[in-house]
Amino acid sequence: MWGEHKRVRVRLGWYDEDNHWAKHPEVLRWRQRQKYNKNPRKYIGAAQRYNKDNLEYKREYGRQHYRKNPEIYAERARARKKRVSTLNGDLTLRERRLIREIYRLRNILNRQNPARPFEVDHVIPLAAGGEHEPNNLSIATKGYNSWKRDNIIQCPSDYFTPGGRK
User: What is the pTM of this model?
Assistant: First the structure.
């Protein structure tokens, strides 16, 4: 039994005569985690460089994934719409009209300038406990809203400074 186990490990390249655990996948993963924990900036920088160098490939991969799995994205959209609609429960008629007006203004801006799309942004994101109410909504460019994601930005001008974008 042990001999067969050893032969399999040698064939897979996991076996080292001096330390038979040295090349085990779990040990290798653990060592890689230890290296990352010692210097995470090195690995994050490498990942950022890879993403920057392969941006078009990653975009095309995302487009293909979207085309192949429309049901996943449709379900996400339904779930978000449901979340937002439940947040609208205690809004007054005036607040609902203001929200509609914000979305209408966004649509006007998008028609006037299709090259630079705008989105309605939650200043305090829903994921961070923000409300879907007029005083928490703003119109932002798609680039800014994508950069911001689910963060709370204290100073929006950070987006426009060279060190601000991550």
Answer: 0.51
